[in-house]
Amino acid sequence: MPGIQKNDFWLRLDNAAKIYPAIKDKELTSVFRISVVLKDRIRAKAMLEAVRDIENRFPYYKVTLKAGFFWYYLEQLPDSIPIDADLQTPCRAFKKGELMFRILVKDNRISVEFSHILTDGTGAFEFLKTLLLVYFEKCCIPLAGKPEFYDPDSKPSAEEYEDAYSRYFKKIDAPHIKTPGAFHVPFSLKNKPRFSVLTAIIPIAELSKKAKLLGVSITVYLTAVYLYTLQHIHEYQPRLKKNINRKILRIEVPLNLRKLYPTRSMRNFSLYVLPQIDLRLGHYTFEEIVKTVYHQMQLETDQKLINKMISRNVGGERNAIVRNIPLILKSLFLSRLYLVGTKQYSGVVTNLGKIDLGTAANQLIEQFIFIPPPPNKVLKVNCGVAGFGDNLVLSFGNITTSKELERHFLAFMAHHEITVKIINS
Amino acid sequence: MKYCSNCGVILEDDMQTCPLCGDTANTGKVVPDPVPHNGTVPATAPAALNRQQKKLVWEIVFLVLISSIMAALLINFIVNKTISWSEYPVAVCLVILSYALFFAFLPGNNVAGMLGGFITSGVLLLLLDTFTGGLDWSFKIAIPVLLTASLIVAALLAVIRLSPTGGVNLIAYVFIGSALQCVAIEAILSFYHTQKLHLEWSIVVCLCVLLIAIALLFLHFRLKKGRSLEKTFHR
User: Fold this and answer.
1) What is the pLDDT of residue A155?
2) Identity of the residue in B26, B34, B234 whose CB atom sits nearest the CB atom of A80
3) Which of A68, A82, A108 lies closest to B30 in CB terms?
4) Between chains, do B15 and A3 touch, taking CB under 8 Å as contact?
5) Which parts of chain A sit beneath pLDDT 50?
6) The complex's ipTM?
7) How is residue B139 annotated by DSSP?
8) Where does residue B172 fall: left (phi above 0), alpha (psi -120 to 50 degrees), or beta otherwise?
9) Residue-number span of the structural domain to which B170 is assigned
10) By the 8 A CB rule, do A346 and A182 touch?
11) Is B93 part of a structural domain of the chain?
């Protein structure tokens, strides 16, 4: 295991995580949340016992961020995992020297918040799933047909620690094609603390019916709605702004690479596709957007193109000049890189997928909520999606004074006979 | 069934307070029963000297220093028929005597110890200077040097007390304090001789000592004992 030492446990940051320490601050926290809402209130004693049982099963998360001379790294913390009462703003930043994930509890809701430096949505979800199933055991609830989960008594495998980007890196010498900048919503920023979340519940059956009519998946359908909403916002700008602002609308849709490249890595292992529409070509109908998004996503999820993306990212990290630049200079470069990257897309739709924990466990759960990390000042709004049971939960993270994007997005759904219910998350 | 009115979780019947938010702070944090680290028992502090033992130590120190003072004065007087060079060892012994007195009998109160030691030493130095040729060096050199030394030592004691871990970082702090004292000594001496502040050798000392201090601090905070260098310097 490169970068892991038993007697002095530390880990290199994975390829995707390397950028986050350079850009994170009190507002742009790089922290996301996954919550599970149960049908019954949480039992304090069982919760404490469950956390105590699983806390040593995930050693790669019981770490804190440290600065080395050339790169940041993760160093083990011996502290027990604390459980907080969930009373504050979601996705708050972690303080220097503390664990980079937290467990929060309120009424019948358990939440985990992870820094993207540690893992992506899949890793965080696996942790929450293990916590939840062990919690049910502690509550003496028998669960027949429960899904595969991490046995608290088992030892973590070496593969769980791995940087899978490095594992699947193959040097490819295809040149990178520069992507032109995209349109960004013109809303003014809120005063600090800026981040707020709007959560809506949509029946999966109704949404699925609409998506099936167009022959696409739910993710494609939601991405198309997002682009349609952005088009509406772009078109209703004042004439001058409309002419000045960029006319390409592009959405970042993260991909879980574990589906393409087998690994049990519990760290970041995702990339993205960037479906787009170009308003210089004229107005798009919703059906046209669905069609173009569907085909772009089909093309961009091609493994050869993903290989190229991995090659570019890991190749950059392995570049001799980059490796030998001291961290302080590298951080300046990385934060600039992040800003340039964010300018390429107008919004993010992260779909955690449909969650299934087996019939018995599912009956104890009301819903899952996924809140993406606070967007930066360029992006301003993003969207997280999690499906469970009969419902899909959409969470819009927003740092502006306007809820126009959310309003148009959800109004579009409602106009298309999809029931939308706003909930207090 | 009992509920927590703050975080809303169900409590066991025997729980008097919510283990998640407690009864002292509503936003409090709870940590599951901490795992004992290596099963170690907290180390007990070394036993402090009792008053009787301190008195004995003080008497020995007092006798040694007074004997040294008497010996130095006597030898100087017999050899040179006057008091000249012995002023220096006598002054040093008087300063040590003053501080030893206060630190022996005012344990744990560093401020009072430093203040008492400084005032007593100052008075003794003034008396020594008066009885050996009139007031000159004591208030122009000795007492200002003593004052800067006392302030630097007080600052060092505060820094050492505030340091969560002791190691080579403490040596670095002492080095930095010494460098500052060198600057103070040269400044006081140059002012005494030329009525101007002129620094030369102390700046060189400062630069050398600061480099060593930085290296020691780096060793302490980045390369703790037994840790690999690879994690700090991995590329």
Assistant:
1) 92
2) B34
3) A82
4) no
5) 1-6
6) 0.77
7) I
8) alpha
9) 163-222
10) yes
11) yes
